[in-house]
Automatic annotation (TrEMBL), chains A, B:
SMART domains: CBS, MgtE_N. It is a multi-pass membrane protein. It comes from Salinihabitans flavidus. It is found in: Cell membrane; Membrane. Signal peptide: none annotated. This is Magnesium transporter MgtE. Keywords: CBS domain, Cell membrane, Magnesium, Membrane, Metal-binding, Transmembrane, Transmembrane helix, Transport. Belongs to the SLC41A transporter family. NCBIfam families: mgtE (TIGR00400). GO terms for molecular function: magnesium ion transmembrane transporter activity; metal ion binding.
């Protein structure tokens, strides 16, 4: 019955996005929690995917969350923990009975356990690791020995490797006789005698071939080996760029140590996106809707503080021209327009640059051409909007020279916004600083300072 | 030899990002183009992946591009076209000899041809479709009958489906005897007699099982069927949320018509992200570094124009208080700080909201709680930075009441920025407008207008 309702709702209620949690299910679950009715709760939760249960837990209040977790109890699946936002994961772990937690964790793949424990404090980490069987614990500890955000942390250690001389029949027999195959695998990896990966054979090709076919005849054209120390963002880029499905991971000596599958790379790509978009807006990249008010305020305060400093800097520029403004108050009325247009153009160029750096579209190869292009774009839009604004200001205040001043100031500000917007991200990238993280305040400072300085400076020079 | 250089460079030149095109290779290729040396060109290009060749073509100048394409000639691979940015795809197609183009297109999978032709003008589309074999042309035309950006356009039509009663042996025999298996497939899809998909069996499980095992015993827990008319953004969300590798696509009657694989979903996720990040910055989402100056300027002009209007609106507010500013020029010096801090806080909240809507974390379920939370965050940071700025203004201008006015104005602006930043995206989403597209100008207008009005209004009321 629950499944029927699940499937009906996307049609019957067009206001909800596809795959978002259905309100009636949520209401029924919260009702069961309220009533303390474990059977009802389990019945409603049963058809939900762990990722959806995690979303549900993130969306309800902290007190409902605790009661739900405690009532759900033995049914609690380890995958829910993996899917949970870090900000409330600790809270949920604390609400779970230690035995349930141990069971939940034991069911997880070792790469999911790594993901779970890597950000924990040592004592909490010890609790989770203590719940694991010895072999799993060693696997997790080995993974943790790789740098954070590296391919070594992302990979699963279970691989299906085959010597180069094997046939399709050898591979099939090997797999049929294996007691424990990886949960997910899409390739048999051919390795040389030193365990260096030399090629991938997709399972589809093996399926379709006769037993006597040598595996090496079925090897894929595209084959990309990933160093275990490579940054996970680069791994995600490689999967997306080369349409990889799985790729072998090798140690410093080039020996096979694991495999990364595309679903993990897709998660990383999504996280990188989240990081970019949050950083560009000056929000702490790990913030989430389930943060407390204090955490959320703190996660935004740093950027607001930097913005305050740059805004004060811009105000100091205005202060230099206080006398000029005193003589013509129209300048105070118009000056925010120049700064605002500059800030906007700077943000546009900066975003294009940050994205192009992330996708490797902006390189040393085309850097000069892109800089010239951006400045030309700035000059062109500066001319168009400078002229437009000159007309507006001319009609508004009836002072032809004021119109000329704002038009010229707008042109200068647009060009410097473009220059700042492209050069600053490139410079930060060269300095190995994430351009998304730090470009904003620099670009805005430039556009504000140039905007006010150009407008008020030209005004005091030409008008007074 | 070329491969050696490729592999050495990432180590020897730490300034380049992993997987970015190696400068020496690019220089050698451009040298070969310059010299008109086809053999050299082919030798340097041979080890490159089509995606990298596409990036190369995007990064060089238009004249180099034309000469390279014409010199490379017969070696030109259809996949390069698929990987190319739309803005220069037409240019490259125009530079290709019609016969070469026809050959290149014939080698592509039908879903790649769909991707290639869907944005073309009718005459150019006819040229490409004319080059295809009949069966392929029909497949492409059928795909084009689905709405743009739908699962039907994204899917590949070739599937491996099996009746529910089949065993592992039946499936293997069927695949061995098939003349044309799909390029990529990861599941055998179990279907009922009406061709409705009922379950997925991964190839790995089939490999590891004995021939007599019924396929239905190996069915995956997670199984998600995608309607052909579903939006591709929702498809990408489902793949990421449920860790799908491939999913069957069904028509209105629930019959299997194709399959979508995770690599396509990953590309869509990446494109959706690009769209969000560009739209949030007010850049036309299809703009790229290879646009001409005029195209790029045009792609940013709309947003700049909207920003001009809102900036003029804010200036009208200032103009209302021209007399007040005339009496105390310090107001003109300080007012941009209030507006700038408001704009920043509004952008932060708006970005969090846009992202949370995209990830289905912000729903009707928790909307009220999130709005209250954001306003509390705004109030908290408003208090902190209002107090800080009051101190700065007090010391700067020595007028205690001015300090009180800016502190209070800052608090009000921060709260309304938070309110606007969360409510506007939610409202647009409810109206079926992409919140990333249109939130920016509205939020900035609110923060500017409220900022100037609160600061100057309070000043004229309290100070004068």
């Amino acid at each position: 019955m629950t499944e029927d309702i699940d499937q009906d709702l996307p049609d019957s209620d067009h206001e909800e996005a596809a795959y978002s949690l259905d309100r009636r299910t949520v209401a029924a679950i919260l009702g069961a929690v309220e009533a303390g009715d474990r059977a009802q709760l389990t019945e409603w939760m049963e058809p939900l995917h762990p990722a959806d249960i995690a979303d549900l837990l993130e969306q309800i209040s902290a007190s409902d969350r605790r009661r739900l977790v405690q009532l759900y109890d033995r049914e609690f699946d380890g995958d829910i923990l993996s899917e949970l936002d870090e900000s409330i994961r600790e809270e949920v772990i604390a609400a779970l009975h230690p035995e349930i937690l141990a069971d939940a964790v034991r069911d997880l793949d070792s790469d999911d356990v790594v993901d779970l424990v890597e950000d924990m404090d040592a004592p909490q980490q010890a609790v989770i690791l203590g719940a694991l069987e010895d072999a799993d614990r060693v696997a997790v500890q080995q993974a943790l020995s790789y740098p954070e955000y590296s391919a070594g942390r992302l990979m699963q250690r279970e691989t299906i490797a085959a010597p180069e001389h094997w046939t399709v029949g050898d591979a099939i027999d090997f797999m049929r006789n294996s007691t424990e195959l990886p949960e997910q695998f899409y390739h048999v990896i051919l390795v040389d005698p030193r365990m260096h990966p030399v090629g991938n054979v997709t399972l589809g090709k093996i399926m379709a071939a006769y037993r006597a076919t040598p595996l090496r005849d079925l090897v894929e054209d595209m084959f990309q080996v990933i160093p275990a120390t490579q940054d996970e963002a680069d791994v995600a880029y490689a999967f997306n760029q080369y349409h990889l499905i799985s790729a072998p991971v090798v140690d410093d000596e080039g020996r096979l140590v694991g495999v990364i599958t595309i679903d993990d790379a897709m998660s990383v790509l999504d996280e990188e996106h989240e990081e970019d978009i949050m950083r560009l807006a000056g929000v702490h990249e790990e913030s989430s809707l389930s943060d407390t008010i204090f955490e959320a305020a703190k996660g935004r305060a740093l950027w607001l503080f930097v913005n305050l400093l740059t805004a004060i800097l811009a105000s100091l520029v205005i202060d230099m021209f206080a006398e000029t403004i005193n003589q013509m108050v129209a300048l105070a009325v118009l000056m925010p327009i120049v700064a605002s247009m500059g800030g906007n153009a700077g943000t546009q160029t900066m975003t294009v640059a940050v994205r192009a750096l992330a996708t490797r579209d902006l390189t040393a190869q085309n850097a000069m051409r892109v800089v010239v292009r951006e400045m030309s774009v700035g000059a062109l839009n500066g001319l168009v909007f400078g002229l437009l604004m000159a007309l507006v200001a001319g009609f508004w205040f009836g002072v032809p020279m004021l119109a000329a001043v704002i038009g010229l100031a707008m042109l200068l500000t647009q060009i410097s916004a473009a220059l700042g917007g492209i050069v600053i991200p490139m410079f930060l990238d060269r300095m190995k600083i994430d351009p998304a993280l730090a470009s904003g305040p620099f670009v805005t400072t430039i556009t504000d300072v140039v905007g006010f300085f150009a407008f008020l400076g030209l005004a005091s020079w030409i008008l007074l």
